[in-house]
Amino acid sequence: MKEIVIISGKGGTGKTSITASFAALAGNAILADCDVDASDLHLVLSPIINAREKFLCGHEAVIRQDVCIGCGACLARCRFGAVTRLETEGDWNTHSRVLANCSDCDICKRSCSVRTNQVIQEMIDTGCSPRESSFVIDPTACEGCGVCVWTCPVKAIDFPERDSGEWYISDTRYGPMVHARLNPGGENSGKLVSKVRETAKQIANDQKRDLILIDGPPGTGCPVIASLTGASLALIVTEPTLSGAHDLNRVLELTAHFGIRSFVCINKWDLNPEMTEQIETETVKKGASIAGRIRYDSAVTRAQIQNKAVVELHDEPVGKDIQTVWRKICEYVAK
Ligand code: SF4
Ligand code: SF4
Q1: Residues 259-279 pLDDT 10s
Q2: In CATH terms, is domain 62-159 a member of 3.30.70?
Q3: 2-58+165-334 falls under which CATH superfamily?
Q4: Which residues does ligand 1 sit against, CB inside 6 Å?
Q5: 57, 132, 144: which is closest to 87 by C-alpha?
Q6: Counting Cβ atoms within 10 Å, is residue 300 exposed (0-12), middle (13-18) or buried (19+)?
Q7: Gap between the Cα atoms of 144 and 139, Å rounded
Q8: What is the model's pTM?
């Protein structure tokens, strides 16, 4: 089974338009949208979702207000500023009442389950004026470290798995597609990418299909590495600009590090032919291959507006460019 990953050093270079066209040209590939932070292959391929599953990853702390005694230990111990004390005048809880009437008997220090006087001092310093008794955790700031859960003397903090998004198995006009949506601020996108890839492989095995096309994320971070690892080939899409050349170099270093055969395709090459030449020269020096050039053409925007892959528009020169790149990739994959 071959896995072709289409990636780019930065977003907006046109890799999803190219992936959608490759899907149309291949006809029988399994598609995997691994750009889970900003997936958009579905906008072109209009998938029909057949199955969806929650992506649970990491944990988040949630205070059970009916159990919390307002001691403030979680606020004192959270290194990420995720715990907030709310002003709740008139809503005194047990601990606040204790402090309001504190006669300095020392019993809290002696009976503290955490067994440290420092905790008691932190409770007093940070959270425990008699009229400030309610504590909440901001789920977007919580890093799921679990320190507050361990610290809470009355076990008032739940620690459920975090609902971080969803992933889907769908049908498209060009074959099955696995894709996902990461919740805003959701972390561990690399794990979600791996889930999408694993599922795509499983479907390919079940259906005896021998090609997976992966729309990878931009950049060089964890989700990109998760998209690339073990792939047969990477097509890196870039633009003829300084930032395009710079980001391409970083991706080429990454693919070289993982020993993945790389091809480079320059999108909108005719906007800066000199820079295109420079990029191609550098690419070859770095041991990668040139897959081809794709011209700037308003037909790409027309295709996007119509929810079509560029090659679905008939006789457009830009579509022919993409076909040339596809043929070059197929030549290598067929070897
Ligand atoms: S789990 Fe960690 S990050 Fe989250 S609120 Fe508790 S101490 Fe703070
Ligand atoms: S440590 Fe526990 S009891 Fe103390 S304020 Fe936090 S949740 Fe409430």
Answers
A1: 999 999 999 999 999 999 999
A2: yes
A3: P-loop containing nucleotide triphosphate hydrolases (3.40.50.300)
A4: 61, 77-78, 80, 82-83, 137, 142-148
A5: 132
A6: buried
A7: 9
A8: 0.80
